[in-house]
Amino acid sequence: MASGGYVLITAARDEEQYIGATIESVVAQSVLPLRWVIVSDGSTDRTDAIVESFAGRHDFIRLLRRQGSAQRDFSSKVMAIREGMALLEDIACPYLGILDADVTFEPGYYGALLQLFDENPKLGIAGGGLWDKTPGGFVRQVQSLGSVSGPVQMFRRACYEQIGGYQPVTCGEDAVAEISARMHGWETRTFPELKVLHHRLTGTEGAGVWKARVRLGVQDHRIGYAPVFEVVRAASRLRERPYVLGAAALLAGYFGARLRREPYQVSSEFRAYFRREQLHRLKARIGLRGNHEGGV
């Protein structure tokens, strides 16, 4: 049994299609959260009504409404999470989960995840392996075991507080968080045996796959990906549908942002650390050095 308990926070905007199933997954957990704050970030559909219907039956669920920005970007999500954190300040527990509103998992998910945290005091961020929904069914997301997908990032609270939580960047707040955690000496880890179904492709909120991959490439530039590593990253995307177009879109977004000289959203210290980490990973891939697990 995991010690100390956990809390959850979800930022949701117009998620009526998915959020009911996500809530059902959480209320079915063998280890329930002490509190779950769901922040409705300017929703105009039935999201609020769905959350309220569950909150009336489960007193650990709290709904917080906020007036979201007109533009849907990740800085709005970060601000929603920060506002929701105010409703968790009175609960002292060691673990904090950031959960997207479009995922489902088995009843033992959080109990197993927290046990893994308890067994490794250096583990700062962890989560299960994502399976993205595609027209042909659920497909396992290409993911380094040393990186944790944003929809299911669970933090040791000490880690979250040390890195200052999510930063209000316009994209890539989850990547920035896990890289910052490793900079501070924490481990980050995906446990693929803990399967999570993601009911749409990662990054496609409000966008098609091509646009989402371009946006991901822009994000990679803004958080400091090295050009050679971005090419390697694009090559790994050849295993995902759409096989060639997805990789091309990623590179188009990245190199387009570089040509436009779009500003970085992270410090020079952060970029230097991240590129050293990427260099270690590249050397490990070609057998020049022992394995080093960081995010791709």
Can you characterise this structure?
By secondary structure, the protein is α/β, with parallel strands linked by helices. The chain has helices at 19-27, 47-55, 74-85, 109-119, 157-162, 173-183, 209-222, 227-236, 243-259, 268-285, and strands at 6-12, 35-41, 61-66, 95-98, 103-105, 123-134, 137-140, 154-156, 187-198. The protein has two domains: 6-198, Spore Coat Polysaccharide Biosynthesis Protein SpsA, Chain A; 209-285. Helices cover 40% and strands 20% of the residues. Strands 1, 2, 3, 4, 5, 6, 7, 8 and 9 form a nine-stranded mixed beta sheet that branches. Helix 8 (227-236) runs antiparallel to helix 9 (243-259). It comes from Oceanidesulfovibrio marinus. Belongs to the glycosyltransferase 2 family.
Please render the helix and strand layout as text.
Elements: E1 6-12, H1 19-27, E2 35-41, H2 47-55, E3 61-66, H3 74-85, E4 95-98, E5 103-105, H4 109-119, E6 123-134, E7 137-140, E8 154-156, H5 157-162, H6 173-183, E9 187-198, H7 209-222, H8 227-236, H9 243-259, H10 268-285
Parallel strand pairs: 1-2, 1-4, 2-3, 6-9
Antiparallel strand pairs: 4-8, 5-9, 6-7, 6-8
Helix pairs in contact: 7-9, 8-9
Family: Belongs to the glycosyltransferase 2 family.
Pfam families: Glycos_transf_2
Domain Glycosyltransferase 2-like: 9-140
Classified in CATH, the superfamily of the largest domain is Spore Coat Polysaccharide Biosynthesis Protein SpsA, Chain A
Low-confidence stretches: none
* Molecular shape: globular
Name of the CATH class of the largest domain: Alpha Beta
Run of helices and strands: EHEHEHEEHEEEHHEHHHH
Major sheet: 9 strands, mixed
* Percent of residues in β-strands: 15-25%
The overall average pLDDT, rounded, is 90
- CATH fold-level topology of the largest domain: Spore Coat Polysaccharide Biosynthesis Protein SpsA, Chain A
**How many distinct helices?**
10
Given the helix and strand composition, which structural class is it? alpha/beta
CATH architecture of the largest domain: Alpha-Beta Complex
Number of domains: 2
The helix content, as a percent range, equals 25-40%
Calculate the terminal CA-CA distance, rounded to whole Å.
Answer: 32 Å
Task: Work out the radius of gyration.
Answer: 18 Å
